[in-house]
Amino acid sequence: MCANSQPTSLGFSARAIWINRTARHIPGWRIRTFGVKRGRSPRARLKRATPARRRATHRDAPRRDAARAGALSTMSAAGKVAARGAFVLFEGADRCGKSTQATRLVRALEARGVEAELWRYPDRATAMGKMIDQYLRSKSEMEDGAIHLLFAANRWEKKALMERKLASGVTLVCDRYSYSGCAFTAAKGVDGLDLEWCRAPEVGLPRPDALMYLELSLEDAAKRGGFGEERYETTEMQRAVKASFEAMREDWWDVIDANREPDVIQDEVLRIALSAVEKCRAGRELKRLWQS
Ligand code: Z5A
Ligand code: MG
Q: Whole domain around residue 42: which residue ranges?
């Protein structure tokens, strides 16, 4: 029997398969499956499921989506590592130039065709951020442990968005993050609120791909103008904050001498950021804070 000749003694299902296979070679034919039992779609399966199974499926959805997003950040459908945006962070004590350099960096990256966004913490625009803002401006009071957790929650509420942006290829340039959170709370010297305690609520957040710590002495910082009116803006507090940053410093941080002309600092910062962007484009895995 030639390959295209019709079988004579086949049952209904086998005949349908034969029609399908044959039709595929005929231009203009729409392929349909006649009488062949197909697997039901997920939606159809869910419709027929018992109420308990349906509830479980919906309950699992966020976990499934998170797992998928995690996988997407490193693997493409073809099983290759996928390009993503870089998470670039500026940290340092007051007036070292974080906001200045973060703003300049976004512009410099965009000028080089890198899609970039400026993020900052605290994000004072959210409901939690508004409470933080009130606290920083001494318009409200809060226990030291409680305000620490609120700063951390302000990062957790934006974690999913951060991951989505990075996975979609946007580079995020961030002005302060968890390191400031830990440095400031630990600097208060409150019993029990040491660095280890401070880190706990931050564990599992996305870890930056590059952390630029702008190093500036208190004396040089003072030359950049007086303190503002916010709660932590005193010499004593800033000294303790610097000590906390020192205690947290890790090998992979880039320590930048911030006592130079802004343009000179920017050149160094841009080199570091572009190197991170390059690595993330090549599929570098997004790590988690303080997880082994
Ligand atoms: N906080 C916390 O407790 N827990 C947390 O989890 C987080 C934060 C995330 C937020 O302050 C406060 O919240 C902060 C920590 C705490 N408390 N304090 N203090 P913020 O981030 O909103 O603070 P800010 O108002 O942006 O100030 P800053 O960050 O300390 O400044 P900066 O961003 O490092 O510096 P700048 O604004 O870029 O520059 C300061 C001045 O220096 C300005 O006049 C510039 O023009 C000048 N400048 C900048 N670069 C240079 C150079 N290279 N040469 C000379 N002059 C320069
Ligand atoms: Mg700033």
A: 13-77
